[in-house]
TrEMBL record, chains A, B:
PANTHER family: HEAT-INDUCIBLE TRANSCRIPTION REPRESSOR HRCA. The keyword Repressor applies. This is Heat-inducible transcription repressor HrcA. Residues 34-62 form the HTH deoR-type domain. It comes from Actinocorallia libanotica.
Length: 337, 337
DNA sequence: CTTGGCACTCATAGACTGGGAGTGCCAAGC
DNA sequence: GCTTGGCACTCCCAGTCTATGAGTGCCAAG
């Protein structure tokens, strides 16, 4: 359907357009890239590419720019992921190396990714459901209130207030705490609901209401906080690009946790990169943006996702390289801690 | 120096310019506001106001717009803080009412403030130094690593990894935890350094290195994390306003924790509003923005600050009202928990 | 199938224009 | 002496027009 030369021309169009941000014409194309054919030939091919929907022209008598479909073909067939330079690798190591706790890892990662790609970076905290319990803590904070603290094996710490209505003796709190940890230590969060099912029966009758309250908050937390924790950075990079009217929509979308989550998409094989281009993105206001995302995690299992958001006119090979590299590093760091 | 009429004219100019975003001329002014004088008189007064630096014209034969100095006078002498409408008060209550833990209070607050003012809102977490210890937890997380968790009376939870190098027996950890809590429970963080000074002497010799490591991390945390935790929301509102070139700078500034902190300024009397207008702001890239900030806290003592960032052309009375009201509510909520 | 030629399209930039909003100044009036 | 109407002046803005040039589509020849 499309011979090699047409594909080469499409690739050249994408590359030129991405780097110059200007519609690319047949003459410039024939010159800059050693295609060995005349501009007229290029024009003929371009007419075919346009007919098939891979490129389009902003107005008659302008050069061509790739369509979403064109970018898609480029990403799938015409390009290879660009490995990071040695300097970039070093930057990742030094930048992420010094981070100890999870908050720091995540916040450094998101800033790093934004800087590497010169785009908006998005990082999701490790999903609760796919982590396991390292420790549970109960601390009385006020009359009738306990603070429930969850610590996961990924270093994520979640806190929730439990309204117990009644005050619990220090002993009872300690006992409940011990019981919770005995039940749950080392368990994956997926097993938690089952593991705690009979727990209320194992506390003294007078403490039972409190135990039930604590458990219900615990279970709630697993649902509500499972994936919701997401951060982004690099919004300033949006102001560089070709956004003008769309900017507001994009900024708005970025502040919605739910939208961000959808943006990164479903967690899959951490080794696989997901690329969603332009209108492939169903989300409101993000029709002219592309997303490059990957899962990250320990030993081959995806804990959560991270990625980058930018204009469709994006350096896909470079961005994909950066996202993949950062995802791998983060996985290593989490595994090492 | 400036008689009442000139002041009234300045006020009218500020109000009109803020609401229309267009330079205001003498004729429109004389008509819209019942000044009882002719446009010519207004012109004379405007010439004086301009000479004194309160207003300026973008170009000859355009109307006048306020200068920073003009806004300053307006804020200090010509306007009163506008109380919120009943609907707005209700919005605050319902929006902040359902929040339990501190993270939720803060994140809701910042979104609420952004929405109320249609500007960028910034909220600082309660400063550690001005809080006191509610509980300290030590959890072994890996070989040679402890997780130190601080819980403050404001509900703030801080975590840090401690590299202990050696593994500690569960007993020793428990003992150290108990000792820490005995020393520190209820103490203000300002007293912590003194209170723990002799703590290493009170643990068994073999655990002493670990105790020292834990303490040094604890003290470090108090310094490093004291005020650094700051969030913002409503960046999308920037795209509405008259930013065009400056937008990038502002977005960049917002992503720098340090800049955000400086932005909110020194904590003062929580009842006092700080307004910094345009170039009064020394921060890079924020010369044409204004900041309205206030301290918030429990029982009259400021724990931290929150505020709003927007164009100098801002509805100061309304913004000040919203900031003050939100600050008070947040204080109440923190006190009540 | 490729190529050079050629007419055609159309965005862009620059020059020019008229209209209008707004000013500053001045002389007359209260 | 402050206020006011009149008036000339400035200068932005929007519209029109034009020349330019990049780029295209088509065609006929190689």
């Amino acid at each position: 359907m499309l011979d090699d030369r047409k594909l080469a021309i499409l690739r050249a169009i994408v590359e030129d357009y991405v780097s110059t941000n200007e519609p690319v014409g047949s003459k410039a194309l024939a010159e800059r890239h050693a295609l060995g054919v005349s501009p007229a030939t290029v024009r003929n091919d371009m007419a075919v590419l346009e007919e098939q929907g891979y490129i389009t022209q902003p107005h008659t008598s302008a050069g061509r720019i790739p369509t979403d479909k064109g970018y898609r073909l480029f990403v799938d067939k015409l390009s290879t992921i660009k490995p990071l330079s040695a300097a970039e690798r070093r930057a990742i190591e030094t930048f992420l190396g010094g981070a100890y706790d999870l908050d720091e890892v995540v916040s450094r990662t998101v800033r790093l990714l934004a800087q590497l790609t010169r785009q908006v970076a998005v990082v999701q905290y490790p999903s609760l459901i796919r982590s396991s319990v390292r420790h549970i803590e109960l601390v009385p904070v006020a009359a009738g209130r306990l603070l429930l603290i969850l610590i996961t094996d990924t270093g994520r710490v979640e806190q929730r207030v439990v309204e117990t209505l009644v005050d619990l003796a220090e002993d009872s709190v300690a006992q409940l705490r011990a019981l919770l940890n005995a039940c749950l230590d080392g368990r994956s969060f997926g097993e938690v609901p089952l593991a705690v099912a009979d727990l209320p029966d194992r506390v003294p009758a007078e403490d039972r209401p409190v135990a039930v309250a604590v458990l219900s908050v615990l279970l709630e937390t697993l649902v509500e906080r499972n994936e919701e924790k997401i951060v982004f950075a690099g919004a300033a990079n949006l102001a560089l690009g070709d956004f003008s009217k769309g900017l507001r929509d994009v900024l708005e979308a970025l502040e919605e946790q739910v939208v961000l989550m959808r943006l990164l998409g479903e967690a899959g094989d951490p080794a696989t990169l997901t690329v969603r281009i332009g209108a492939e993105n169903q989300l409101q206001g993000l029709h002219s943006t592309s997303v490059v995302a990957a899962g990250y995690g320990m030993d081959g299992q995806a804990l959560a996702r991270l990625g980058v958001l930018g204009p469709t006119r994006m350096d896909y090979p470079g961005t994909m390289g950066a996202v993949r590299a950062v995802a791998r590093y983060v996985g290593q760091i989490l595994a090492g801690s």
